[in-house]
Amino acid sequence: MSESSLGKGDSLHQQVLASFPLCDITEDDMTQNPQFCKLLATLAQHVDQTGLTVPLNTELDKAEQKLQSQRRQWLRSESLSKGLQEMTQEHCIKKHHTTVPPDQNMFYETMEKCLLVSQCIRQLDPSSTTNQDQPSLLGLSTQQVMELMPPEKNIQRMKQGLPGELEKHLRRKCLSLLSYYQPEWENESEGLKAIKLSHLSAQLDKEKKRAESLTETCRENTVLLQRQTHLYLSELIKCIQILQSLILDHRLRIQTDLDRKKLEYFEGKLELVLQKIKVEMVEIQLDTYTVDSISAHRKIRGKLDTELKACQVEKQSVELKLASFKILGKEFETLAEEYCRLRQEIEMKHWALKEFTQYSNK
Fold first, then answer.
1. Which residue has the higher pLDDT, 201 or 326?
2. pLDDT tens digits, one per residue of 29-46
3. What percent of the chain has pLDDT above 70?
4. Quick one: 179 and 257 in the same domain?
């Protein structure tokens, strides 16, 4: 393989790895599978790093923008609703600690009633797609709930003063957020706080982007670390295999001498044990068979041999008689069985007569 083709292959490998950072692929995998590497290189022209095609990614961006727009609208209305609820809660707490002017009390009571009515209406008709044939909640209708609204005069007065009160409330919340974000700015003047508050959104957005950049860098470092870990483990496994082969070769070289020495040791030990066993057997025989015991054993053996010969002669004679009886046939066997039966009956009668005589004497 020439240097130019090698450099081209390495460049192609790097391009594929950069195009698919989320895939656990190494250069060795692509070197061993060149067709798969070409397939990935061709596929990289049609998809991005996340695996999405260009048209699908465009549609996804449009859907994401639409979702973000709707999310901003929802957050705007939800933030406004939460802010109004917080204002009513703060007023309720304030009433229990200080004396509130009647007009301010009327303002917050009107706003609270309007919020409650709007929440009830939202519960009765949560969406425009609600089926009109469905039974209403608690049998109430929107018109019945609207009758609970405060007088129109109070509502108009509340609407006139609402922007100012809401602006004050949001300003206090922003200043508290500023104090939480930078506690050292809490003792600054109101003008300086207002200036810093105007730059807070940009600063938070800058830090958010920095956090996202750090997250992306962390993800790339994680992928790189996984790749390096895989390479490290592969090299470590190769080193372990080489070390195992070296240990095995060294062990095989010295194993022959070690086995031979062990064999010689065990052979010598076995020979020593056999000699000890022989010595013990000789000592046992010497202790057991003395001169007197040997002569007595000889006499006993002679007597036993004589009795054995006599028994053998008797056995031969009995076998001859038995053979002569067998010549007589089955009739003799019947007579012999009848003779045995009569002998048993005679013995039983003798036993019964003896028992009866002993009982009569008593």
1. 201
2. 677 777 877 777 777 776
3. 81
4. no
**45 is a domain residue:** no
Q: Are residues 191 and 71 in the same domain?
A: yes
Cβ contact 50:19 at 8 Å: no
Structure-token pair, residue 187: 């003792």
For residue 10, what are its two tokens? 């390495």
Question: Please, how many CA atoms are within 13 Å of residue 304, restricted to the half-sphere of its CB?
Answer: 6
Identity (one letter) of the amino acid at 92?
Answer: C
Question: Of 288, 309, 340, which one is at a domain's C-terminal end?
Answer: 288
In this structure, the answer to whether residues 283 and 243 fall within a common structural domain is yes
* 222 and 181 together in one domain: no
pLDDT in tens, 5-14: 333 345 666 6
Residues 6+ apart with CB under 8 A from 137: 123, 124
Please state the φ and ψ torsions of residue 47, each to the nearest 5 degrees: -130, 160
* Structure token digits, residue 283: 């000592």
pLDDT higher than 80, residue 351: yes
pLDDT of residue 160: 84
- Contact between 124 and 142 (Cβ < 8 Å): yes
Which domain covers residue 347, as residue numbers?
321-353
* Single-letter amino acid, residue 209: K
